Amino acid sequence: MCGIVGYVGNEEAAPILLDGLKRLEYRGYDSAGVAVVAPEGELQLVRRVGKLFRLEQELGARPLRGRIGIGHTRWATHGRPSEVNAHPHVAGPIVLVHNGIIENHMALRSALLARGARIASDTDTELVAHLIHFKLREGMVLEEAVRRSLLELRGAYAIALLSTEEPNRIVVAKSSSPLVIGVGEGAMFCGSDIPALLPYTRRMVFLEDGDFAVLERDAYRIHRIDTGERVERPLRYIDWSPVMAEKGGFKHFMLKEIHEQPRAIEDTLRGRLHREEGDIYSEEIGLSERDAQAIERVFLIACGTSHHASLVGRYYIEMLARLPAVAELASEFRGRDPIVGPRDLVVAVSQSGETIDTLVAAREAKERGARVLAVANVIGSAIPRLADASFYTHAGPEIGVASTKCFTAQLVALLMLAIWLGRRRNVLDPIKARELVEGLARLPLQMRDVIIGTKQLVSNLAKRHGNARDVLFLGRGFSYPIALEGALKLKEISYVHAEGYPAGEMKHGPIALIDVNVPVIVIAPRDRWYERTLSNLQEAMAREGKIIAIASEGDEAVHRLTQDVIEVPEVIEFLNPLLTVIPLQLYAYYVADQKGTDIDQPRNLAKTVTVE
Ligand code: F6R
Fold it and tell me: Which of 245, 263, 279 delimits the end of a domain?
């Protein structure tokens, strides 16, 4: 989605803005722009369609002068990608950038046109700049003009703006779209996402919905939009390092992030495993022993890859905590008046913590009295802020649009939650719990072995099968969501049509697809579903499908059936998904790399989906 950066301080603003925008490139965009104001108030505006290097080239040829500015990467919603639709937008002295969607833009546009506004673009954003400008003309001071204008907006927004008449302050505002203030030494920053600000400061303040703030070089103030009342928000220290958000010698962020999984899992487990007791330490889950016993149902709500983690989490919770659990797509859960209430635990799973459907679904569940637990990777993001408690994954910043390390970190978080609930509810045998905890502790090394040990084979298989038009992924039990995830990874970055199916469903339809041109990737580690999955593998073979099997180490039976076997270490069955998914991530990566697609920013996709 769109990205925002802003800076006011003692340094030249343009290079800082450009650097911040580069760090937001991963969010996906189609045009970009910066506005810098010189001390005497001269506005310098540069906007370009396409990739950031076009903007960079222009700024190289014509450097901008000034110590205050705002920048934006746009992902078109209203109006096609073009220079005139790119942000920042200008109306009189107001220069403004915006993420999100203003829902009442049609009414606003008519009202502004009736008042004589000269609107240059097709965007909803420019309207906000005109609205503020009109209020300035009515005699309001900047802050009041902004506040009053914001009261007239409906929809989701994060906004940063400045006035050429007051070139010492940036005003920012937020409603359902992320915005963070970075507090530097003699400098203030704002951004739609943490990585944009990491090289400059790790001290961050997260605005709440309905907040606006005024940033000056040495100070910031936060107010409520509805009342104007001043409020305080906690200053948080973000321990992600800027290096974590760089490629570190890898060709793509996605490949780097696949390799970072052992560390992401180690960090997510750190301090939470009680190995002697076979238990999980976690104050963060935010439930008492009695609460855990009183829960009657668990809903896991999420989108995309996080939904696939939730599908596995659902099995974990049912099997280990003996609680009825469902994993629901947040976009389907919200708005249908779901039956959910005070005896239910709703686990909202989201890497970014900002996905609009998950946020709205969690809010609806909370309004009905359910207890909401966030499983998120971005500290202080919207879903954890709304939730009653947050059990964070510690995967570090994920830059590649296709989620990899956050997926496996979510799986371990959900497994820990299931063990914790199982122990509190006295339904999980302590010996089994110890076995699981020990298994989790060994996992990072095993993941490392899988990455190192399988990548050459997977890359060769990708070369052989990469041109297939359709690919089928099959699995049962824990491996069914992994089949869905394998298919999603492949389609989103390589644009190859892929379907994930529960292997048991194959006979009910998809078997018709199989012929000599269709690779069928069967996830068949040793687990309680193994024998039946093997029967499905044989059925696919009988239709001449090209079988690639993901199997447990030393599985002779699978080797006898197909020559293309990717082996993963044999582990306690609950941990299989954490290993079997790795070759599938690598497969998608190598197929896409061979096709030369834009792996880290696949077409039409954005990292954080903050619009509906
Ligand atoms: C796919 C992918 C998306 C996200 C989805 C939810 O690789 O990354 O499907 O999983 O958009 O995002 P979060 O987890 O941020 O809520």
Answer: 245
